[in-house]
Amino acid sequence: MALETWPGAALARTPEAGALWRLGPVRLGYIDYLNTLPVYFGIEQGIIDLPVAVRRGVPSELNRLFLDGSLDITPISSIEFGRHADRCVLLPDLSISADGRVASILLFHRVPLPRVRRVALTTASATSVVLTRIILERHLGLVPEYVRMAPDLDAMLAGADAALMIGDDALLADQARREGRYPGVLALDLGEAWKEMTGLPMVYALWVIRAEFARRSPEGVWLVGRLLQESQAYSWTHRDALLAEARRRRHLPEPVIEDYFRLIRHEFGPRYREALLTFFRHAHALGELAEVPVLRVWGEEGR
């Protein structure tokens, strides 16, 4: 998974970006799913002159790369932030969330939920694995066996009663299910189940900054934050181009793409922070977190 240097990196027209370029490009992570496309689409088009080098990957890969020091700023799974909160700072006003149905965090099951005894969990995920436990064990009162498997729904359901899939894999599998490829298989939307359980949104991923990078290059953090906000603004003012790019990448029907982009949120205001801490409390109760972490947000220290 090589670093990609994006078009904006060669421009560096502002003094701040020029200074940052002399330190080397910011190593920026990119979850290679449609749920981050609205955040990165403007940057991909080269509209902002910040030097960035990008690594794409599924959430579990970016978690690992961030923790081994290979990325400066990246989205990572919420649960991995919870486990390593002392090593990073949160970028403000940015998350991957949904307020109810999410359409891309799905538990496919071939038997009724009360009869689920064995669950295949995708190796691509961290947060959704814990969310599955919360929904099944704390909400539905089940105690199934869990196995980790690559995200292949046929193989997963061949060896388990239910299968967790996330991101574009889930969107594509659910489209195939709706078209009749998996007769008798149902899909539980875990965002919807979480909303039913708690009344809150669900925060699946957060943008984090390596603590050392934040200390060494606060101007870099500021510029990346500005870049991501401007990139989002570009995406939504060029919505047709954004949707066309999403269709080109995943070949999903236009109504599916439009519905998905209506569901996905990228905010991180007070209600979403409350939701995240609620998730952490449930994870702690299940033994998935040693403690409920403090949310350290860049620019808010000392408030």
UniProtKB/TrEMBL annotation:
Gene Ontology MF: a single term: hydro-lyase activity
Keyword Lyase among UniProt keywords: yes
Keywords per UniProt: Lyase, Menaquinone biosynthesis
SUPFAM superfamilies: Periplasmic binding protein-like II
Enzyme class (EC, first level): lyase
TM annotation in the entry: none
Catalytic activity reported: chorismate = 3-[(1-carboxyvinyl)-oxy]benzoate + H2O
The EC number(s) this enzyme carries: 4.2.1.151
Pathway(s): Quinol/quinone metabolism; menaquinone biosynthesis
GO terms classed as biological process: menaquinone biosynthetic process
Leader sequence segment: none
Pfam family, one: VitK2_biosynth
Family (UniProt): Belongs to the MqnA/MqnD family. MqnA subfamily.
Reported function: Catalyzes the dehydration of chorismate into 3-[(1-carboxyvinyl)oxy]benzoate, a step in the biosynthesis of menaquinone (MK, vitamin K2).
Protein name (record): Chorismate dehydratase
